[in-house]
Specification:
Blueprint lengths: L2 H4 L2 E3 L3 H12 L11 H11 L1 H7 L1 E2 L7 E2 L5 E2 L4 E7 L3 E8 L15 E5 L8 H15 L4 E7 L3 H9 L3 E7 L8 E8 L1
Antiparallel strand pairs: 1-5, 2-5, 3-4, 5-6, 6-7, 8-10, 9-10
Bound molecules: coenzyme A.
The site of coenzyme A has 20 residues, from β7, α5 and α6.
């Protein structure tokens, strides 16, 4: 792990970091890379009610509204929470969601853990470090393993997963709600 990854912390999304998050959205980054309108929607939500926006990012009891999928359909929200990566500046996000009492996920949920690093902070080991720090949270809700899904061409994300003990389970086709592309499913034992 690089020296800069050692200075990285995962923080609960909060007002203190919100201006930096907004700046990242305005610079063209968005955790949701599938829905083009996602960044504009988030900026509008933050403008409307920042506290509601922040509360939705920390939702271990699934109180938020249903999740909007890339094809426009909706799916029930799972319990989950986001953490922001911070090294003195905003670096990206990682999120974790789960189905209570089972490691199984609905087919429309692309894995237990997702992450995205802002382009100007990539290649420093941040995603690898963030995933390592999220695994104890998954263990704490009782999961025996987590699954992560990547595009077949996303070699950087695959290296992040294998560096954390991930093993390839299968190549599969995403459901139609998620666009039908081929993807890889990995599993990390906890
Ligand atoms: C994938 C992503 C999260 C990686 O973040 P990061 O902080 O740069 O990742 P790290 O620095 O921890 O490690 C990346 C690993 O991939 C490698 N890598 C980076 N870019 C690469 C590329 N284009 N091709 C191949 N390997 C690459 C790095 O060398 C490193 O491997 P190593 O530790 O064996 O040297 C980041 O590129 C990103 O946010 N992408 C867009 C969103 C995304 O794809 N999220 C994952 C969805 S499954």
């Amino acid at each position: 792990m690089s020296l800069s990854a050692e200075t990285l912390v995962l923080v609960k999304p909060a007002r203190l970091y919100l201006a930096a998050y907004v700046d990242a959205l305005q610079r063209g980054w968005c955790a949701d890379t599938v829905r083009e309108e996602a960044a504009a929607e988030e900026l509008a939500q933050i403008e409307r009610d920042p506290d509601v926006f922040l509360a939705r990012l920390d939702d271990p009891h699934a109180k938020g509204p249903p999740v909007r999928l890339p094809d426009g359909s909706v799916s029930p929200r799972l319990p989950g929470f986001h953490r922001w990566l911070w090294d003195g500046a905003f670096c990206g996000m990682i999120n974790f969601r789960w189905s209570p009492g089972t490691p199984a996920l609905p087919p429309t949920c692309p894995g237990h853990i997702g992450y995205s690093i802002v382009p100007w902070k990539r290649g420093r080991g941040y995603a690898t470090a963030a995933l390592a720090r999220m695994l104890p949270e998954a263990r704490a809700v009782g999961l025996p393993y987590v699954e992560l899904v990547t595009d077949t061409a996303n070699v950087a994300s695959q290296r992040v997963i294998t560096a954390n003990g991930g093993v390839l389970v299968e190549r599969f086709t995403r459901p139609k709600e998620l666009g039908c592309a081929d993807a890889l499913r990995f599993r990390i034992a906890l």
